[in-house]
Amino acid sequence: MPKKFYITAAIPYVNAPPHIGHALEFIQVDAVARFHKLLGDKVTALTGGDENA
């Protein structure tokens, strides 16, 4: 039975010119989600979740 894995990324709230740091979080979430899929886990990856609400 596959394990469940849930990962989120914060909303891209840009209050300055976009830079590589904005993309870094989404790339990291995608990489970790893909790794867990390779392990056979049931993965839910939410991009754009409001982490402060």
Automatic annotation (TrEMBL):
Single GO molecular function: ATP binding
One GO term of the biological process aspect: methionyl-tRNA aminoacylation
Presence of the UniProt keyword Disulfide bond in the record: no
Organism: Candidatus Roizmanbacteria bacterium CG22_combo_CG10-13_8_21_14_all_34_12
Protein name in the entry: Methionine--tRNA ligase
PROSITE patterns: AA_TRNA_LIGASE_I (PS00178)
Chain ranges of the Methionyl/Leucyl tRNA synthetase domain: 5-51
Keywords attached to this entry: Aminoacyl-tRNA synthetase, ATP-binding, Ligase, Nucleotide-binding, Protein biosynthesis
Domain of life: Bacteria
InterPro entries: aa-tRNA-synth_I_CS, Met-tRNA_synth_2, Methionyl/Leucyl_tRNA_Synth, Rossmann-like_a/b/a_fold
